[in-house]
Amino acid sequence: MKRLLLLTLLATALPAGAGEQVRVPLSASVRAVLQHSVADMPLNRSAFASKGDEIAWLNAMSPRLEKRFPDRATREEFLNAVHYEAVRAGLDPEMVLGLIQVESGFKKYAVSSAGARGFMQVMPFWVSDIGAVDHNLFYLRTNLRYGCTILRHYLDIERGDLFRALGRYNGSLGRAEYPNMVYGAWQQWRTAASRTVSLARQPNS
Question: Where do the structural domains in the chain lie, given as residue ranges?
Answer without folding.
Answer: 2-14+50-201
